[in-house]
């Protein structure tokens, strides 16, 4: 339920670390990463890291 309390955004920790969902385990891993982000959403270092990874995923075509 904690995951649903946060508004969705353009990118996120789960999207830049896990990749596409292919198995139920991938979905579990994404949920775990979302909860990790929620626990430290005020961390500017984590947000900067997510933006950095998003840039290379989108611009450089290094998506999973």
Which terms summarize this structure?
64 residues, mainly alpha, 3 helices, flat
Description:
- The protein is flat.
- The N and C termini lie far apart (27 Å).
- It has helices at residues 13-17, 24-39, 44-58.
- 56% of the residues lie in helices and 0% in strands.
- The protein is mainly alpha-helical and 64 residues long.
- The chain is built from 3 helices and no strands.
- The protein has one domain (7-58).
- The longest helix is centred in the middle third of the chain and has 16 residues, at 24-39.
Q: Helix and strand succession?
A: HHH
Helix share, percent: 55-70%
Mean pLDDT, nearest integer? 85
- Rg, Cα atoms, Å: 12 Å
Task: Give a short synopsis of this structure.
It contains 3 helices and no strands.
How do the strands and helices of this protein lay out in sequence?
Layout lengths: L12 H5 L6 H16 L4 H15 L6
């Amino acid at each position: 339920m904690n995951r649903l309390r946060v508004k969705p955004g353009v990118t996120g920790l789960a999207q830049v670390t896990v990749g596409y969902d292919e198995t139920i385990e991938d979905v579990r891993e994404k949920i775990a990463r979302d909860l990790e982000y929620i626990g430290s959403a005020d961390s500017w270092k984590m947000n900067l890291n997510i933006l950095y990874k998003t840039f290379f995923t989108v611009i450089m075509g290094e998506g999973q």
